[in-house]
Amino acid sequence: MGFKQAIIGNNQRDITRVIENIVYLELLRRGYEITIGKVDKLEVDFVCKKQNKPIYIQVSYLLASEETIEREFKPLKNIPDNYPKYVIILDDWDMSHDELFI
After folding, report:
1. Which residues pair with 85 in a beta bridge?
2. Topology of 2-91 in CATH?
3. Which residues pair with 77 in a beta bridge?
4. CB < 8 Å & 24+ apart, contacts of 21-25
5. What distance, in Å, lies between the first and last C-alpha atoms of the chain?
6. Whole-model pTM?
7. 94 secondary structure, DSSP code
8. What integer pLDDT is reported at residue 65 of this predicted model?
9. What b/e string do you get for 69-94 counting C-beta neighbours within 10 Å, with b at 16 or more?
10. Nearest alpha-carbon partner for 88 in 45, 36, 42
């Protein structure tokens, strides 16, 4: 990410892609096999497997609107298994929103 910043300049307009790249590289470093997932017509940013156990990850810069919240959480809520599901964001989030996880 530092090379892109040095060559192109300000990464702020592509901040979500920058965060996704950082998460992707960290998952690779930790030994995960990584693919992109689909649930119906919805996309899951990362489906990661290690020792045949999946985890699901969505990445977003901010959860600034109901539309963004729906876009990031709905695919994870529609996955029928009980493996870990994460949404990685850079803003503060009130985790008392249980209705998102039911």
Report:
1. 56
2. Trna Endonuclease; Chain: A, domain 1 (3.40.1350)
3. none
4. 23/57, 23/59, 23/88
5. 36
6. 0.78
7. -
8. 85
9. beebbebbeebeeeeebebbbeeeee
10. 45
3-state secondary structure of 9: coil
Q: What is the DSSP letter of 31?
A: T
Q: How far apart are CA 65 and CA 50, in angstroms?
A: 33
- Res. 3 pLDDT band, cuts 50 70 90: low
Instruction: Quote the DSSP letter at residue 61.
Output: S
- Determine the 3-state secondary structure of 90 from DSSP: coil
Write out pLDDT tens, residues 60-77.
Answer: 888 888 888 888 999 999
**Residue 45, token pair as written in the block:** 């940013």
Nearest of 72, 70, 49 to residue 59 by alpha carbon? 72
